[in-house]
UniProtKB/TrEMBL annotation, chains A, B:
Pfam families: Arginase (PF00491). Keywords: Hydrolase, Manganese, Metal-binding. PROSITE patterns: ARGINASE_2 (PS51409). Belongs to the arginase family. This is Arginase family protein. The keyword Manganese applies.
Amino acid sequence: MPHSPTPAPQTSPAPKTLRLKMAQWQGGNLPAYHFGAELLAWLAPPSDTPMVEVPVDPPSADPLPLEDGILAKSRVLAQARSARVLIDAHAPDRLVVFGGDCGVDLAPFAYLNEKYEGDLAILWVDSHPDIMTPAEFERAHAMVLGALMGQGDQDLADIAARKVEPAQVVYAGMDEMSPLERERLTDWGIPFIGPDQLAETSAPVLDWLRQSGKKHVAIHLDLDVLDPKGFRSLLFNKPGSDNAEWADTPQGRMSLAQVVRLLRDVAGEVEIVGLGIAEHLPWDVMNLRDMLAELPLLSD
Amino acid sequence: MPHSPTPAPQTSPAPKTLRLKMAQWQGGNLPAYHFGAELLAWLAPPSDTPMVEVPVDPPSADPLPLEDGILAKSRVLAQARSARVLIDAHAPDRLVVFGGDCGVDLAPFAYLNEKYEGDLAILWVDSHPDIMTPAEFERAHAMVLGALMGQGDQDLADIAARKVEPAQVVYAGMDEMSPLERERLTDWGIPFIGPDQLAETSAPVLDWLRQSGKKHVAIHLDLDVLDPKGFRSLLFNKPGSDNAEWADTPQGRMSLAQVVRLLRDVAGEVEIVGLGIAEHLPWDVMNLRDMLAELPLLSD
């Protein structure tokens, strides 16, 4: 019997992942977000994946200018555009983003929605819906998902050439919100799956993903989805403050283990092509760093 | 008038400082001390000062052997000897130590006491006196100052060729202790200056230093001297634990700012030649690192 030539195995090239460090702090009007990103990137498991850094104005205690109702709008826009230039230069299949305030996911998720031509679910793991507009709030980090959907400030929205449709979006870990936010989500038909529903199972999210029919998912992980009693490196936990400013702001109720389980379950269901981690505020670490800088023998 | 040759200016060479990273964890029987040292060293202000690292067995969850009443005594001894070899090789005038458990200061302070021939005050900034012996406790990190004074386990004590005299020692930030500890300090005549006495002024410590007549000081800074409500990266604050184990253990009552002020005031009074920082337990950071290692796209 004559040998038939063995066909070359059908292999697709390994997907190309890019790590993006984006120490944006102006969107939350808090210099500490900058260091949060630095530490987060330092903690990431070592990898051969390339890491690029979006240039960000260094932290400053000077008041940020209010531009069209948004603090430091021109900086936030410029940083999102820089992020997009870096992403386009690498043209990755997958993106990991180390933030920074929540706004760091604007350009990356816009890129992914274009790349996958809308075949992208967006899983927003957060205690807050991030659909504010300048009419209600002045910090861009609370506007990012709205901007991806074409809402609110038009310049921010224009970062996303292809608008995210409400049917692409689901929230996880969130069930408290303002009446206005609730009304908007209801109007748009975007579901939210609360922490109690996810305490023992990831099924509600997996069911939604299945019903969405999307083959790819980008995950926004705002660390404030975590219970601040178990994870203290959050906005609401600043030591030496009564944190009265946040008394009416919903806080997270998920554990680290629940978040890990949720994301791993999602990875078993659809292809994760984006993961942005945001709002890391390691107060102790910053305070310790500042103390070391003042100590004799170290500051000499 | 003929020129007389200009004499060379009388300059003494700049003192030589060495930074020592010692991620010892066995002395506190807690692998987390290892990462605490890594992060502490990462946070230190950048410097041209050389940094050397004492080889330490990597953290492990396996039970440590009890040897002569001390957990992992042979490892703790071997690590102290390694530290001494490294220090002797550099022969510095000043030492900064990044720990690790409190035991990291055994070899460095022994070296300094020999180098300055006893013209050395020891300022122990801590919530605990660290003068236990194997008869009462099995963790070496609670024995280090006792060992420097020749007390307790003889092998640990032998790390210090020149014994520290009780008259060289003062505590700061500590006023609660067990009856046994109080009896020992009274017998030895070692004063302790509590956090309330130091809340507004460093004077009690400065007065003691002046009366001691010592021209050099080595400072042991156990971070547990800090109030755990303001600085959470401490033994007593493990998230998800009721920390019942520490219910009867004295906890710190100083603020970061008070510690900085105290050490800077001391630097104005005598020459600081040693600074060891110990017992850093950044729970959130470790938990976040462990979470990142489990997440899709990061663990792939």
